[in-house]
């Protein structure tokens, strides 16, 4: 990165964004744990999933269908890979937006091998016709392929080998009950605590061959918004700073200086987050203010404010959504060092 580059990042390019870009995906592949013992955090989910997989192996059967919900970057894709590895089965990866017709899904299902694990990311974004086909495939391991149109259309039953579907979603509530009920095991993945993130950072630092002090790892963890993907991304950027402007070793001071350059503050807020809070506090006295007005004030689209900035600000207790509009909390005033007007 050019230190003098003033180009503003898009929502997908934010350093603290939870969406994985091409670079993230490549690095994540190298840093992913290979089994449940290596997987850090989510202890309850790991314990429950371990029982499901052990029992399936003991029976010599395919594992039950698994639904994983939670925010991006918490390890849903990693767990799907671990499920396939633990079951010694191939893994097929696709996503809801890629399955827009029942024929798309039929083509995928008909090519599965026995015992194969199908990972369907963003399952809530699958089309309704494909979703209805998936009901029968999950329950009876067969699909009806419709040939022709109108009164002359014919349904040809197609038997499928037993397989395991792993669905991932950030919004489990958007799944219709008939689909949700067909999963034998459902798990909600929680945000990580600072101690867990420090373990993630130390593990990643070893794999990346980066020297990191406990204090340096703690500083990065505290700004990682409870998300391992963000922790790994911040670690790589701090590593770059340490290599260029120091001796390559990550200490607390180096982490603080590096993240100041990248505009990630002590609570993990970046430029966009602070712009939203500053507009709300300085321009509108803390609110309430309508979403459209707030978006115009920060020069962003409504969707960017609601989907990119607000979730973390609400979770941190810095912003509240009310029927009358967005309102800043006392914590927001304190965080920016401002005094409430009036």
From TrEMBL:
Has 3 domains, the large (RuvB-L) and small ATPase (RuvB-S) domains and the C-terminal head (RuvB-H) domain. The head domain binds DNA, while the ATPase domains jointly bind ATP, ADP or are empty depending on the state of the subunit in the translocation cycle. During a single DNA translocation step the structure of each domain remains the same, but their relative positions change. NCBIfam families: PRK00080.1, ruvB. It is found in: Cytoplasm. It comes from the Bacteria. It comes from Streptomyces prasinopilosus. DNA binds at residues 302, 321, 326. Belongs to the RuvB family. The RuvA-RuvB-RuvC complex processes Holliday junction (HJ) DNA during genetic recombination and DNA repair, while the RuvA-RuvB complex plays an important role in the rescue of blocked DNA replication forks via replication fork reversal (RFR). RuvA specifically binds to HJ cruciform DNA, conferring on it an open structure. The RuvB hexamer acts as an ATP-dependent pump, pulling dsDNA into and through the RuvAB complex. RuvB forms 2 homohexamers on either side of HJ DNA bound by 1 or 2 RuvA tetramers; 4 subunits per hexamer contact DNA at a time. The gene is ruvB. One of its GO terms (cellular component) is cytoplasm. This is Holliday junction branch migration complex subunit RuvB. Keywords: ATP-binding, Cytoplasm, DNA damage, DNA recombination, DNA repair, DNA-binding, Helicase, Hydrolase, Nucleotide-binding. It is an enzyme of class 3 (hydrolase).
């Amino acid at each position: 990165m050019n230190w003098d580059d003033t180009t503003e990042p898009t929502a997908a390019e934010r350093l603290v964004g939870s969406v994985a870009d091409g670079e993230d995906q490549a690095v994540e592949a190298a840093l992913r744990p290979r089994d449940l013992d290596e997987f850090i955090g989510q202890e309850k989910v790991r314990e429950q999933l371990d029982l499901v997989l052990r029992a399936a192996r003991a029976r010599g059967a395919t594992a039950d269908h698994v639904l994983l919900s939670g925010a991006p970057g918490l390890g849903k894709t990693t767990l799907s890979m671990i499920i396939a590895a633990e079951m010694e089965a191939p893994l097929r990866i696709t996503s809801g937006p890629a399955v827009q017709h029942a024929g798309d899904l039929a083509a995928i299902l008909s090519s599965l091998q026995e015992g194969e694990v199908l990972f369907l990311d963003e399952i809530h974004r699958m089309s309704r016709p494909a979703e209805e086909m998936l009901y029968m495939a999950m329950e009876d391991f067969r699909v009806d392929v419709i040939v022709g149109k109108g009164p002359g259309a014919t349904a040809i039953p197609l038997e499928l080998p037993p397989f395991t579907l792993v669905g991932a979603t950030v919004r489990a509530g958007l799944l219709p009950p008939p689909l949700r009920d067909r999963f034998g095991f459902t798990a909600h993945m929680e945000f990580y605590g600072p101690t867990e993130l420090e373990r993630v950072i130390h593990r990643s630092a070893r794999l990346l061959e980066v020297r990191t002090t406990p204090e340096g790892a703690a500083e990065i963890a505290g700004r990682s918004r409870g998300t391992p993907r963000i922790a790994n991304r911040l670690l790589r950027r701090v590593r770059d700073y340490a290599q260029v402007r120091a001796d390559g070793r990550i200490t607390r001071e180096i982490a603080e200086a590096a993240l100041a350059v990248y505009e990630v503050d002590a609570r993990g807020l970046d430029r966009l987050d602070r712009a939203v809070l500053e507009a709300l506090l300085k321009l509108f006295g803390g609110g309430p203010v309508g979403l459209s007005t707030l978006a115009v004030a920060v020069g962003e689209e409504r969707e960017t404010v609601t989907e990119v900035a607000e979730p973390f600000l609400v979770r941190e207790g810095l912003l509240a959504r009310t029927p009358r509009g967005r309102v800043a909390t006392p914590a927001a005033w304190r965080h920016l060092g401002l005094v409430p007007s009036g």
